[in-house]
Here is the input.
Amino acid sequence: MILEEIHIRQRVSALKLKAAQRYNICPEKCHIGHLALEGMLGNQKLLNQIDGVTGTSETMGSVAVRSMRLASAMRNYGLKPGDAVVVIGPNHLDMAIPYYACHFNGNSMCGMDPNIGPVDIKGLLPYIMPKMVFCQKSAVEYVKDAFDAINLEGKIVVFDDEKHNLEQFIEENHGTEVNFRPAEFNHSEVAAWLMLTSGTTGLPKVAVMPFDTLLNGICCWWEKFTGPMKLVLTMSTFQWLSALVFFITAPIRQYTRLQFSEPLTPQLLVGAINKYRPDVTAWTPHLLGQFLQATEKICDLSCFKYILIAGSPMEKPILDQLKKRTDAFLYLVYSMTELLVPAFDYTAETPFGSVGKPFDQYKYKLVDDQGEELAKTFKSGELWMKGDAFFKGYLKNTEETSKMLTEDGWFRTGDIFYRDEENNYYFVERQRLLIKSAGYWISPLQLEEIIRRHPAVRYACVVGIPDKTLMEVPVAAIVRNNGQQIDPKEIFSLVKESMPDLRQLHGGFFYLDQLPITPSGKIHRTKVKEMALTAERILPTSS
Here is the structure.
């Protein structure tokens, strides 16, 4: 059964009442784990998940039983609310089981992408201190080494190893769904998600999302969408916000997820969309642009009703191209890991380039470099926000937390915005990406937009590298359209026509076949910067 209309806050209230009756507790004690389980038990024949690679699927009822059995086994093993659990792997059908079990038990879940390397795992585990890790065989040695480095005896459950998999762990620890009850604990003190920041500009940090904050955030995510949803295409893994949101909301919002147990390729994605006809998904602009260009005549996107687009600013040609292929509502979201929720109210009437207008439930202000609020329109400043759906700090990292959260509760986004006279907000630049050269700030996004005007340029990414004289100089990594030849003088002339001398490409540029991206589909600027330091660059004087 697919519900024809869902108002998320009414749905949450109804599930709380049902769970309270089932477990004989007051509704206030029901957390998001109660709601997810109640949603599954109330519609057991509905599919919870489909693997787009193998075609296998699993119902809500089956996922509920397996998750309760695992949660029971985890308790019997000794885990308590607030204990951390790490889940690493692709989106096969077993991934959802520890995910939901953690929510039932009040365990703090940290999802990691299957491509995460040993350096990141070893750097993150001292902060997370997990009691248990679920992973593939390919990650076991990394995890063991990380445990040894911090003298921690954590349990490792291996999805694809018959001797150490979920069923074996459940059997050894007498897990059962009989008389199972979700754990009770303080929702504001226990973290539901330990979320890794993307790491596009540095090493990941661990953002803490308590259970009560998470429930507020989920309500904010889905308030705009009251129409029926049948199938949500989930492209990212648990390290990324969209997957975490899509997984927890499926039983609450009553839809099926389409996910992939192998790395997602354009061919696999085209086949899945044409076969299963999902009606909701999330994309980053970079991956969306690549997909649209490669699939114009072979993929029908008319099935989509809602497409969330987030991660970086949207280029108008990509947006126009997408609108030609679908009538879906395109929800251009400004958010970040630490915010959890969409920060602005984006509607069909929002002018292009704007992220939308402020929500009533949050406070906003733009501040200058001295922290003074900017009252005038069209004045650019850093966006500060305050609300009850944002993260509560970085795990065991007070120094980084103090950089982001003021003593009176304002969250510093680190992003520059301005607003117009209609109170529409416009993203200008990510503050930490700015390049300081000879005392002047240079915008990489502005330079990228100029370079992309060249007809032979497909993508451009500008980063700063050290310079003895100027402190930093901008360098561009350029991906050409089908390998077309470019006269370097044309690139430098484009920039010279638009920018003053101090903001030229003094570090030159170099070519790449493709830009490195994170698993969530964002351009990996840290890797581009590493490449720029060793690349054979074309300099203005050599062109």
